[in-house]
Design goal:
Layout (H helix, E strand, L loop, with lengths): L9 H4 L4 H16 L4 E2 L1 H8 L3 H9 L4 H15 L12 E2 L1 H18 L7 H8 L6 H8 L4 H9 L10 H8 L6 H18 L6 H4 L3 H8 L1
Parallel strand pairs: 1-2
Helix pairs in contact: 2-3, 3-5, 4-7, 6-7, 7-9, 9-10
Length: 218
């Protein structure tokens, strides 16, 4: 039986969050049950719709989840080769699928100091590296692009985690920001989080703030 565990090295397995591992496993199980010869980037995006971390970001992007799910399911049914009846099903990930997972792992290794786990939102962002995939096309149809997803992920404020400079530059339209500017903006975001009772600020919510609008026009 092919499992999501077989596609990454032992060291990488320990980095994958339990809910993401469960999502990958369910994607493989569903693909095998449908006798699919391959599991693709589109399969991956479909399973991420039910992953808590990825779904949170998609909702923050105002994704039309039902429409996206329908589009992906129809595409997969129409385009994925099936193993003939009577033959053993050994569903294998496409190169694109493997590249997405490796890209997400490498990003976390590079930015997390080996301490952070790979979660669904990391994989969602990594999908955009497959620029020619239909998964990316379906996201773009809903005006969801890499920059928007990354700005939401970077904009999360949990505990001592800081608002990233890339999020600040995206939100304010500034090409350069100094330390004072960054500190003032981070304090504003923390205030907004407290005011709205949320753990992170999306671009849509931030832009409703008069304080953020002043940063953009100042």
């Amino acid at each position: 039986m092919t499992s999501s565990r077989t596609q990454v090295s032992t060291g990488e397995i320990s980095m994958i969050a339990h809910d993401l591992e469960a999502s990958l496993h369910m994607a493989f199980v569903a693909a095998r049950e449908q006798r699919h010869e391959f599991i693709t980037v589109e399969h991956l995006l479909l399973t991420l719709l039910d992953n808590p971390s990825a779904a949170e970001v998609l909702h923050a992007c105002d994704a039309k989840m039902k429409k996206l799910r329908k589009r992906l399911a129809a595409y997969i049914k129409r385009n994925t080769p099936r193993v003939k009846r009577g033959l053993e099903v050994d569903t294998n990930p496409t190169l694109g699928f493997q590249r997405v997972i490796q890209r997400a792992i490498m990003h976390v290794q590079r930015t997390g100091g080996g301490k952070k786990e790979v979660v669904g939102s990391n994989v969602l962002a990594a999908i955009f590296g497959e620029k020619q995939s239909d998964a990316v096309r379906f996201l773009h149809e809903q005006d969801i692009d890499f920059l928007r997803v990354k700005s939401i992920i970077d904009g999360k404020v949990q505990g001592d985690e800081e608002v990233s400079v890339s999020f600040i530059m995206y939100m304010t339209g500034s090409e350069k920001v100094d330390n004072i500017f960054v500190e003032e903006f981070r304090n504003l975001v923390l205030l907004l989080c407290k005011r709205h009772g949320v753990s992170f600020i999306t671009p849509e919510l931030a832009l409703k703030s008069e304080g953020v609008r002043r940063f953009k026009t100042g």
